[in-house]
Design a protein that fits this description.
disordered C terminus, 32% helix
């Protein structure tokens, strides 16, 4: 995002919910966000990435990005109207990447209730309410199920990242194990793969990605899970989160 989006945000002015709740009305907030979605990344950006050898990008989204039905009974319920046109824009971004020969890792960056209490999960109150609330767990599973259903046959989608940077809490293990199992139940999720990224690494079936703690995922219980590598080159010293194949 860019700082101008937060100029008239509500509350602490640090999260997606603050933006959607600000600007005087949901109509105005929707106009601000849609203009941002339509201009911040475009086809020429993907073409440029391809021209310098980038073959895969990660696309962070929140559950609210799937549209108003997924906002109901969540903190985004009162601003659900803001997201009536958000999912088609996600599809458009994936399509633009495909047309440039670039794979997409779809990352659930904001889960219902928040997986870490951080502003990048969509909220600004600092609370982590995903794992202790069965209804939030189920809503998040519904989100992931929707993503699997919608994207399993999109050939440049290299995987779905179940959660971004979840808080290390006791119930995280059960959440990850059960959610991964549900994803794998999709009959089509692993059957088609023509991604530039995966083909180059000679992996023959669709993968589900996560940056979760890999010690919880060991064969034969959970297989074909991958832990992405995050390289933070601007930190001192540089930080590297390694990529693991399970």
């Amino acid at each position: 995002m860019v700082s101008s989006i937060f100029a008239c945000a509500s509350g602490k002015q640090i999260s997606e919910l603050d933006v959607a709740s600000g600007w005087g009305s949901t109509t105005a907030a929707r106009a601000v966000l849609e203009r941002h979605w339509d201009t911040f990344i475009n086809y020429s950006d993907f073409q440029y990435l391809a021209s310098i050898g980038i073959n895969t990008v990660r696309l962070p989204i929140g559950y609210w990005s799937l549209g108003p039905p997924f906002c109901q009974n969540t903190p985004f319920a009162t601003v659900a109207d803001v997201y009536q046109n958000s999912w088609p824009r996600i599809v458009r971004a994936i399509t633009m990447a495909a047309e440039s020969g670039i794979g997409v890792l779809v990352d659930l960056h904001g889960a219902v209730g928040s997986q870490n209490g951080q502003p990048h999960s969509g909220i600004s109150d600092g609370t982590t309410n995903l794992f202790d609330d069965p209804s939030n767990v189920q809503k998040t599973i519904d989100v992931l199920s929707f993503l699997v259903d919608q994207l399993c046959n999109v050939t440049n989608v290299v995987g779905i990242q179940m959660l971004n940077e979840p808080q290390n809490v006791p119930k995280l293990t059960d959440f990850c194990t059960s959610t991964a199992s549900l994803c794998f139940q999709s009959p089509d999720f692993f059957t088609r793969l023509e991604s530039p990224c995966i083909n180059e690494t000679d992996i023959s079936s669709r993968c589900c990605f996560s940056d979760l703690f890999t010690r919880w995922f060991r064969p034969p219980t959970i297989q074909r899970l991958y832990c992405e590598q995050n390289r933070f080159c601007c930190s001192r010293p540089p930080l590297l989160f390694r990529f693991y194949a399970i």
